Amino acid sequence: MRSLSSLTYYQRLGLSPGASPEAIRRAYRQLSKRYHPDTSPLAPEVALRCFQELQEAYLVLSNPAKRAIYDASLQAMRAKAGSPEQRGSREAEALELPMETRPLSAGELCALLLMAATFVLCLVLAGVLAWLREGRVG
After folding, report:
1. d(Cα 71, Cα 66) in Å, to the nearest integer?
2. Residue 19: how many other CB atoms lie within 10 Å
3. Which parts of 17-105 fold into alpha helices (H)?
4. Nearest partner of 60 among 70, 50, 74, judged by Cα
């Protein structure tokens, strides 16, 4: 897997420079689940490095002041080196992060089980309350 460190912060998160704060947060949460050392199928050292690089990108892009400084430095670098379109589409293809599927962790399975149990309990409670109310009215 190609190191994320050679990518811009936006590219690490798979976003365009005009991304909204909500899109940044959503992309970070999705990718951090994929690369978290405890849940990633990658080697622990690789997962940790990728996760740290994602965190670094998120910390800068989620802070408006730091993001403004970062955007200004990106514009200066692009003006100096030329736009990415001039360098060809080969670089853009290399930016794609592979989508990997992984089994749910024990914590995720537990959370799903608790949510399902809560839903069933709410349905039962609603049925009991409706039955009791019907008995009072009729």
Report:
1. 9
2. 17
3. 21-35, 44-61, 64-81, 89-94
4. 70
The rounded distance, in Å, linking the Cα atoms of 86 and 106 is 47
Residue whose pair of structure tokens reads 């589409």 in the numeric block: 89
Q: Measured between alpha carbons, how far apart are the two ends of the chain, in Å?
A: 69
Q: Is 64 exposed, middle or buried (0-12, 13-18, 19+ CB in 10 A)?
A: exposed
Q: Which of 25, 29, 24, 27 is nearest to 39 (CA)?
A: 29
| DSSP 8-state symbol, 14 | T
Question: CA-CA distance, 138 to 124, in Å (whole number)?
Answer: 21
Please give the share of the chain, as a percent, with pLDDT higher than 90: 38
Closest C-alpha among 115, 103, 81 to residue 8: 81
Q: Across the 138 residues of the chain, what is the mean pLDDT of every consecutive 10-residue run? A: 69 89 92 86 86 91 92 85 53 51 83 96 96 79
How crowded is residue 34: how many other Cβ atoms within 10 Å of its Cβ?
Answer: 21
Distance between CA atoms of 138 and 133, rounded to whole angstroms? 9
